[in-house]
């Protein structure tokens, strides 16, 4: 990759050891073995910096691409999940273009959620907000379920409401978005919002007009 994507990776992954809490006692080989990273994971995360993500994917034979594109590491994360979680817009777009599955749920000890949940939650992190907004748009263009629920019955809209996130125009204006959906605890979008301006009525008027 070139341009912004290379700068983006350099900024977020300059020290891969810090990113993954790598201790001094872990050698590179031992670390990779314990993480279960495929070669595609290593290229994406810039552990292997010899080739760009797009050049690597382009070089793969079809059978190898099919084997690697949605393969998980030991934490159950596909390369696309890593890209979405860190708001890497360029990498997300490239992986989707090569067949990465945007509908696959990510599972942790706490439960499961979709990639759209991760992306909507992302702008609050220390990483680039603009990147997360672009990732959300990429996922919406792939037809992900905007009303999918996580392990607590939260949709991406509930997450946006609870954090007072009001600038997700493409999500809020999506024709299939359910503004009346409740969580497993019977919490509404309005009830979860910390700011009065986030009422479903107000946003529906703004984005669905």
Present the secondary structure layout.
Layout: H1 4-12, H2 16-19, H3 28-35, H4 39-44, H5 53-59, H6 62-68, H7 79-85, H8 89-97, E1 106-108, E2 111-113, H9 115-121, H10 129-141, H11 156-162, H12 169-172, H13 189-192, H14 200-207
Antiparallel strand pairs: 1-2
Helix pairs in contact: 7-8, 8-10, 9-10, 9-11
Could you walk me through the main structural features you see in this protein, from its secondary elements to its overall organization?
- Keywords: ANK repeat, Repeat.
- InterPro entries: Ankyrin_rpt, Ankyrin_rpt-contain_sf.
- The chain has 14 helices and two strands, in the order ααααααααββαααααα.
- The chain is mainly α and 209 residues long.
- The protein is elongated, with a radius of gyration of 18 Å.
- The N and C termini lie far apart (39 Å).
Query: How many helices does DSSP assign?
Result: 14
Task: Tally the beta strands.
Answer: 2
Give start-end ranges of low-pLDDT stretches. 1-14
- The share of residues in extended strands comes to under 5%
Strand order of the largest sheet: 1-2
Overall mean pLDDT score? 82
Shape: elongated
Can you summarize the main beta sheet? 2 strands, antiparallel
> Helix content range of the residues, please?
40-55%
Q: How many whole angstroms does the radius of gyration measure?
A: 18 Å
| CA-CA gap between termini | 39 Å
Secondary-structure content class: mainly alpha
- Along the chain, the helix and strand elements come as HHHHHHHHEEHHHHHH
Keywords: ANK repeat, Repeat
ANK repeats: 75-107, 111-151
InterPro entries: Ankyrin_rpt, Ankyrin_rpt-contain_sf
Pfam families: Ank, Ank_4
């Amino acid at each position: 990759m070139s341009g912004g994507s290379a700068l983006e990776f350099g900024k977020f992954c300059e020290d891969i050891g810090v990113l993954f809490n790598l201790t001094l006692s872990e050698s590179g080989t031992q670390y990779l073995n314990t993480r279960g990273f495929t070669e595609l994971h290593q290229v994406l995360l810039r552990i292997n910096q010899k080739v760009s993500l797009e050049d690597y994917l382009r070089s793969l034979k079809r059978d190898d691409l099919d084997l690697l594109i949605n393969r998980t590491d030991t934490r159950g994360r596909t390369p696309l999940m890593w890209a979405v979680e860190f708001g890497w817009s360029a990498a997300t777009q490239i992986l989707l273009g090569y067949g990465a599955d945007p509908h696959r749920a990510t599972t942790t000890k706490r439960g499961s959620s979709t990639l759209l949940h991760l992306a909507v939650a992302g702008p609050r992190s220390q990483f680039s907000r603009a990147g997360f907004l672009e990732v959300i748009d990429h996922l919406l263009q792939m037809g992900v379920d905007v009303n999918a629920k996580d392990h607590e019955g939260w949709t991406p809209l509930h997450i946006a409401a609870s954090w007072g996130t009001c600038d997700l125009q493409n999500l809020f204006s999506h024709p299939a978005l359910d503004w009346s959906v409740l969580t497993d605890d019977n919490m509404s979008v309005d009830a979860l919002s910390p700011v009065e301006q986030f009422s479903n009525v107000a946003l529906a008027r703004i984005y669905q007009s």
